[in-house]
Amino acid sequence: MFKVLIADDEPDVCRLIGHLIEWDLNGLVSAGTAENGSVCLKRIREERPDIVITDIRMPGMDGLELIRQVKEEGFTCRFVIISGYQQFEYARRALRYDVEDYLLKPVGKRELNDCLKRIVERLGAEDAETEAAARERGGWKEGAEASGYAVGEPGRESRPVRLAKQYIGRHYMEQIRLSEISEMVYMNPSYFSTVFKKETGISFSDYVIEQRIEAAKRLLRESGCSVREIAERVGYTETAYFSRLFKKQVGIKPSQYRKLHS
To answer: How far apart are CA 47 and CA 167, in angstroms?
Structure first.
């Protein structure tokens, strides 16, 4: 069963979309609803849904900014945008973020479920690939000594994980997507995510954050750049979000960290 999260600032719209979805027929379960982009981002971090259905215009953080932030943090959920705004610019920007579909309100039941069915089929195909990769894993372990690395053994990192960490170390200031890294190391995204966490003890997205925060700490100690400039140099466009993330990771604000190490 795949989890679906619905985000819209109108509770009635959330209920309507939930009513239109053929949950059992499509193999879906609800991951709840969110009344704005900020709440939706929090729910995504907590619930890890497979599919997110979101409006574009919401208070605080709109749907496109939500998608950008989710991609930046490395989550792999699929997005469907439902909006009453028909301007081409919204659709163009949505496609740039690789959304699965862009549906206009009022959305029809058949249209919505056809869209979800297509996504479920793709997710199912990916799961099948993951299972096949898992079966292959036994062969990888048998050939570990010959190939020079092992997969999933405590204290040892496979070549795909080492390559991923090297890439992150060089490109943490850029937008880093799990899908692109997994493609680079020739692995299915879901399986690579599992392998990465098992071998490193930390999720892919958390590892990216950790590397960015370490780079920010160096810049705070060694440069005269402003907090805003440092946020941008380590890959964050929103200074406020960067500061909250820094405090969560380090325990103090960036400005306080700088004072302590000045």
So the answer is: 28
